[in-house]
Amino acid sequence: MKKLTTAGLSMFLAGLPLTLFAAGNYDGSKPMMCASVEVIECVPRGGCQPVTAASVDAPRFIEVDVSKKKLSARFANGERSSTIERTESVDGKLMLQGVEDGREAERDGIGWTLSITEERGDMVLSGSGDSVAFVIFGSCTML
To answer: Could you tell me if 141 and 30 are in contact, meaning their C-beta atoms sit under 8 angstroms apart?
Structure first.
């Protein structure tokens, strides 16, 4: 029975596309969807602590389209997007950077960097502004 099971598994695996076994190719050549898993907020003299994405108005899901130079996220009150101003591959990571002014008439602009491991799609999004920084850990998948 063991030989039959091994043979059946081998035949099944041989029929699958090789791309399923290749290292991930999170290099920005295809659009991706990234999910926020852990959000941390840091403030001077207050240190850093975990928060929910909703409590700091951070997106739970971010669509990344390098070819369109755009990050976009949907919220209850609509969609927001940000322009990818710089793209570079460094040490096996796709690095994307940009800035965002935030809400009109509020001093809430930030600079951000999104790092995605090209092999597995792990992500770290960091943003900083006036006396606050956010770090979001998560994972991406290709669309």
So the answer is: no
